Amino acid sequence: MKDRFSLILGLIIIIIFIVLLFIFESPFFKDHQTHTYEEALEIQVQSDAPAVTQEDNKFVYADKKEIDKYMDVEKSKTDFQFIDISEKVDISEKQVKDILKDKGVLKGKEKAFMNAQEKYDVNIIYLLSHAFIETGNGNSELASGVKMSNGKKFYNFYGIGAFDQDAVETGSSYARKKGWTSPEKAILGGAEFVKKDYISNGQNTLYKMRWNPYNPGQHLYATDVSWATSIGKIMESYYDDHNLKKSKVYKDYYK
Question: What is the pTM of this model?
Answer without folding.
Answer: 0.86
